[in-house]
Amino acid sequence: MVEETSGSTQNKTKAKTTRPKAVHAWTVGDVLKWYRRHCADISQTSYEQLFAKHDITGRALLRITDITLQRMGITNNCDREAIWREIVKQRLKTDILEIRDMERVNMHYQQATHTSNKNTNLRGNPSCTQRQIP
């Protein structure tokens, strides 16, 4: 998997965090790296050059079907199924990451809305205001 590193230049004490580069942003080179890592041992025939020849980027990889693989020139059914299985696994990983990101955003939104509503209710409701003792 391709990773990008992000770190704060202002705070050197923080550890660098790595997060996988989004698949839809992968270049042809990133896809070839993924292929070597996940599909290289599938067959004695290397289909890596077919992915390069057809300029398969990450966005294209996520859209590939079994028929696409066949049109690319992967005619061996067993090889095609094995490569297809790896592509489906990558799709699932991508979907899971996107769902987690959406959940995080939703959680932050709910917390912000809850805090905002709580502050509004305290200010707007006379029964919630602080009473001054005479």
From TrEMBL:
Positions of the UniProt region annotated as Disordered: 112-134
Domain of life: Eukaryota
Pfam families linked: SAM_2 (PF07647)
Coiled-coil ranges (or none): none
SAM domain mapped to chain residues: 26-93
GO biological process, one term: cell surface receptor protein tyrosine kinase signaling pathway
Transmembrane segments: none
UniProt GO cellular component terms: cytoplasmic side of plasma membrane
PANTHER family for the chain: PROTEIN AVEUGLE, STERILE ALPHA MOTIF DOMAIN CONTAINING PROTEIN 10
Protein name: Protein aveugle isoform X1
Organism listed in the record: Drosophila lebanonensis (Fruit fly)
Encoding gene, per UniProt annotation: LOC115631021
